[in-house]
Batch of 2 targets.
Target 1
Amino acid sequence: MNARESALKVLYKIDVDQAYSNIALNHELKSQQYNKLDRNFITELVYGTLENFIFADYIIQQFSTVKLNKMDPWTLNLLRLSIYQIFFLDKVPDFAAVNESVDLSKKYCKRASGFINGVLRSIIRSKEKIKMPDKKKDFSKYLSIKYSHPQWMVERFLSYFSEDFTEDLLKTNNETPKLYIRVNTLKITVEEVLQLLLKNEIKVEKSPLIPEALIVEGGFSELETLEIYRKGFIHIQDFSSMLVAKILDPKEDQFIIDVCSAPGGKTTHIAELMKNKGKILARDIHQHKLSLVEKNAKRLGVNIIKVEKFNGKDLDHELLNTADKVLVDAPCSGLGIIRRKPEIKYRKEADVIDVITEMQLKILINASKYVKSGGELLYSTCTIDPNENHKVIEKFLNISSEYELIDISQQYASMLPGSHEEKMIQLYPNVHGTDGFFICKLKKK
Ligand SMILES: C[S@@+](CC[C@H](N)C(=O)[O-])C[C@H]1O[C@@H](n2cnc3c(N)ncnc32)[C@H](O)[C@@H]1O
């Protein structure tokens, strides 16, 4: 199977079966003995096409006699894949993209071969003349098509941020994020990991801000197959997620509750920072996800975590005033991690945020009751939407007078990218180069 066919199959799974891009792609890459070049090309085709669905559909609509919603999904995704190559990949000549697509159509959507050939050839002929929406007359529509974000999302961003900031954010959302790994300091030192990676010909750079964070050059996609991963020497985690456990700042022998813990990235980091001494109660609403927490903990050699299925919207009277620190890494819209999971752009509805903020506040209020007097509560999300972040904290502080904000911008300044004026921190992909993330820490009087 060639790279384009593999990419098409992955795109179909994401679009039609609603698969997560990373899972569908990894599954395909593991299903056959692809060489490195093919793996990289498939990855580029899948993410590049997925990032540009709305742009591709805008172009298709101008040249197709068949409406998008009447088109068979193999045909539609094959056209999208071809348009990505024609408009964004200089290394692929246009005619090659068309010929390969027509060949592929014979296997996946035979009856549409002629149609695909015709549409793509017309697009190539008129490529330079295609009109985008007028930037001055309809800025949000222009941004929506150019950067393939739904128009409601663009308008929402424009209501929070300036025009330049919004455009920069949308552009960055279509870029490839850096790949970070966390060294498991329970098992190995950073220097030893550097040596082992070098032996595997994987180049990494140390993060200047978090000692256990390493940036993998070129974003090697198969870290999980390495012995160093299987042995639990490393964990794959973005920088901003690592910041959460660092700012929670847990100590040995403390009792920590993580109310939304799966798949366990932050919980296991917390355990490492506690030197595997103390107690962590890791909860989540989904049992199947909790088994991932257990699996990660086992691989990383962590044995202080007890997992428990529990709905954070319910209050557990047994835990009142018991924990030294509580983490609420809340379920959220995920608008800060579009670079990692571009499908988020297409799967969210405009009203999702209002529903989610109520849940976030409820979980936070319950969690706050588990903290001992003098203890700390940390709230984090992977979104840049102020309604899920600052607004939730504002509402929380209005009803929870025993809590006060800790100035983490000051206290943890040495590990924060950029400078922060507020006590809580908001990271943006286009400003800080990290996932879009919000972190806020509160102290119970
Ligand atoms: C942002 S993720 C947590 C990521 C995790 N902290 C980590 O670092 O790996 C949010 C989690 O909240 C869980 N969740 C959603 N609704 C919940 C609820 N009502 N109570 C508890 N957990 C919930 C989801 O299953 C999901 O695993």
Target 2
Amino acid sequence: MTTPFGQSTVLGYPRIGPDRELKRAVEAYWAGGIDAAELHDRAARLRAAVWRTLRDAGLASVPSNTFSFYDHVLDTAVAVDAVPDRFRRLGLSELDTYFAMARGTAAEPALELTKWFATNYHYLVPEIGPDTAFTARPDKPLREYTEAAALGITTRPVLVGPATFLLLAKPAPDAPEGFRPVDRLDDLVDAYADILGALADAGVPWVQLDEPAYVADRDAAEIDALRAAYDRIGALHHRPRLFVASYFGELGDALPALLATPVEAVGLDLVAGPGNLARLAAAGPIPGRTVVAGLVDGHNVWRTDLRAAAATGAALTSLADHVSVATSCSLLHVPVDLAAEPDLDPDLRARLAFARQKVDEVVALGRALRDGVGTLPAPVPPAPAAWRDDTVRARLADLGDEHTRRAPYAERAAAQRARLGLPPLPTTTIGSFPQTDELRRARAAHRAGRLDDAGYADRMRAEIAHVVAVQERLGLDVLVHGEPERNDMVQYFGEQLGGFAATVNGWVQSYGSRCVRPPVIHGDVTRPAPMTVDWSRYAQSLTGRPVKGMLTGPVTILAWSFIRTDQPLADTADQVALALRDEIRDLEAAGIRIVQVDEPALRELLPLRAADQPAYLNWAVTAFRLATSGVADATQIHTHLCYSEFGEVLPAIDALDADVTSIEASRSKMEILDDLRAAGYGRGVGPGVYDIHSPRVPDQAEITEALCRAVAAVPADRLWVNPDCGLKTRGYAEIEPALRHLVAAAAQIRATLG
Ligand SMILES: CN1c2c(nc(N)[nH]c2=O)NC[C@@H]1CNc1ccc(C(=O)N[C@@H](CCC(=O)N[C@@H](CCC(=O)N[C@@H](CCC(=O)O)C(=O)O)C(=O)O)C(=O)O)cc1
Ligand SMILES: N[C@@H](CCS)C(=O)O
Ligand SMILES: [Zn+2]
């Protein structure tokens, strides 16, 4: 007797807890405030609460092993024992070895952290070499299954699938040239077979293996590898039934490949990948299989058009024996519960669904597929007319090419040189200075009404004065105001722009214990008042040196917000760009001579399929240029990029036409400079000479060495000296010596220039 896949499920659920309990627990453990037993206890309570919530909501199939102390890709690495020796050698407990891989130690840098597909979640990159010994360590999925079973809830353990795991991994540092982790798939499948055997022993009926890597372009060999892996896993005599989930797009040729294997259920994202439906139809009948239809968007916060989703579900029932309703991806990417936002505008609230509400939608759709659409709740009301702004629309309609073009760089550079009078190799920072507990407490007091507006502004001005004084004392050439007033580089703008709504508790995990509160873009974007001008003007009033105005660019604002789905993203980007254009002109009018527009998410939003990339890059570049091209030649525009490998988008970085680009470079040993030059980039560049992600303070010699490499790659008159990124996550005890060394290293190289 086989267990059918239930009528409704979610691919994963937020693990941070309704009040970020996970953050508080792990941070308390790291700080020595609670012991491992207490941490495990709190984690078990969080897991139990999620399972009960999902069961009580009426979900037919409940996932487990979606909890993680830090990251689910790291959990999968541990489940197959892919722990690099450098961490084993530390001789720590299992839990502390895990956290050492996630966070590093004084002796060992952490695994690399990188973007999880096109989301704002970051995973830890497994390091796989030819000798990595894969061994099944199924303890965690087994423990979670058993824990839930003790509550009377039968769950479906979730693991990253073996092919995606290796495609996301990077070669271990000592791997020979040309080694590819995916070449180890056969060995890894052996370990998965053992894990599945152990789960089957425990009575697990279904397991979910996530293979989202196959919604990106994959070559024939990679698709063959997928088929071979699931042929082998499918042929195992002793295993749970297999649900292979895909999400974030269309499976393309991987879909028929997967359907040719014995897996019992395939998950398709029908929100980000509507073409999956036609591809499934083209694949022909799939007797005995379940299609798990991702009909409820797990990556955005809008309520689902349940009738349209039910129609898609009904279309699927003619293609597959069993259709189950699910979220399009894990609900990890949305806040936990709309109930925690009682003060949101009712018109907006009526249109939103967070994780908890999306579970209800899935259950309702599952019921509708069985009992008909008459059972569905009332449709989402239309958007209020007040969310439309005809002035913004008319302004955008009137724009021409001249609004995205500046004078030739040589002319601008000459005007800026004359106006700014900077030395060669000017030193600067990326914007933020340490966000101290005291600053956060002041903001919390202001939010709670314990500190009034004037008191808060005084506190921020005092911080700005401090940051300016520190920079003058250190001898930096171009100063910043330090961004003390910003809770976050996107949320801060979301709180001030029209068409955006900020949440008070809408936290989403970004990495490990770090969370963000993405604003919701619901209407046309306006700028009711200047957003940064007073702070920048005040900072500039304290010093004769130039203070950079500091803004977040249109792409990054969209990437780290919940976006509108009722108009093309390009249109929303232009609206944000127009607001920034007005802000930049106001900064210029206030005497700000340099404005930096950060675009760290430029690479993040790049579509997964190459065919979709040119259109994206075109609108992304246009929006940046619309924002930044309204200024005089003598006003210098900087941009800043970090958190990504920028190889694929270097021509777009050049096309941004910024006067100066600061870019993360210290970990790649300045190689980015050659790549930029090869892409034709010929304007100012500030390769990061100091890795701010690490608490290590670089000495002068290593910064000098980095600068020597930079001077060899870029003419000195175009080179800037700066850290890799903002300093907000560091403390003054680290950044003061680091910046002192940076300034001294720049002086040392300047002296050699003659
Ligand atoms: C650069 N990155 C960012 C991404 N996305 C963004 N939206 N913003 C980013 O900066 N994506 C890519 C990377 C990801 N990196 C990070 C790095 C750090 C964090 C982080 O530290 N997050 C904080 C929350 C930041 C914040 O909103 N701070 C608020 C304080 C909110 C708060 O917790 N308040 C407390 C009370 C505080 C007190 O009393 O001391 C409370 O409400 O309980 C602020 O400064 O006002 C985090 O803690 O996780 C995120 C992504
Ligand atoms: N100006 C921002 C950029 C971060 S990517 C900062 O300095 O924090
Ligand atoms: Zn940065």
